[in-house]
Amino acid sequence: MNFLSRLLIFSACALLGTHATAQPFPSKPIRMIAPSSPGGPVDVIARVLAPGMTETLGQQVIVENRAGAAGLIGAELVAKAPADGYTLLLGFSGPLAIVPHLNEATPYDPVRDFAPVTLAASAPYVLLVHPAVPVKSVKELVALAKSRPGKLNYASGGNGTGIHMAGELFNLAAGVRILHVPYKGAGPGMAALMSGETDMMFNGLSPAIPQMKSGRLRGLAVGGDKRSPLMPELPTVAESGLKFNTTGWYGILAPRGTPQPVIAKLQSELARALSIALVKEQLTKMGVEGIGSTPEQFGSLIREEMEKWGKVIKTAGLKGMPL
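Predicted structure:
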């Protein structure tokens, strides 16, 4: 084979390789890592967003639960994944704003190691008590806790989760000492509360509403700056006399270095997914608000939340807590 023939073959191969790598994104299924156990707010929101994104992107978006260490395990997986847009994180305050303050050995940096795509949704937490707890308002709960210091307890989905921090905020704002009992996910924590194993818990509205309506749990207040249209009879935490907000937020992130056109594509298609009637209906039924921010806005929120929770953790003396 002469030099010209070899050159032509090499050029053809190079063109084929360029064509292969230039395939439009996405050209294969995408994994959405939900760093939580099934049944919690992160999981249920992921399972509403994924079908919507499947429709708008034209490729299947598969939810994969990677629970553990307040979201650290799932977040680390995404931080170390190829930066190609095919492995995404449904991030929340736990692994992105709280865990790094609790655990100095956190194997990623929330700002340095992720590329924010969009803030997808937010949802207020609801303060729940077991019906055997003799209170029907936040004021009565605070009075009971003060009369029994260290005797009441609250469940959470694990050390460093947002619902854990909501309980610590409650302690600080009310000046009480209600003991924390961590479980391996919000679902197991909720089961413990319903069985009477624990006294109280902050959790998302979606898993809580059926239990409140059935009488298995009693709701005292919701976070956020307004009452939920799903449970309008419940006052906000602020209306109940405590000055703090308990709202969960959920957003899509990719590994650092993911190409900007891929980030832009994911952001725009998630925004389209949030406008799909069925997606909007499902989120509304769960008390979740679809948002769809810019990557820059979401990045700013993460930095603000890291600063806020760092102060709470320091004040509560929680640094170094095992996850």
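Summary: The chain has a mean pLDDT of 91.
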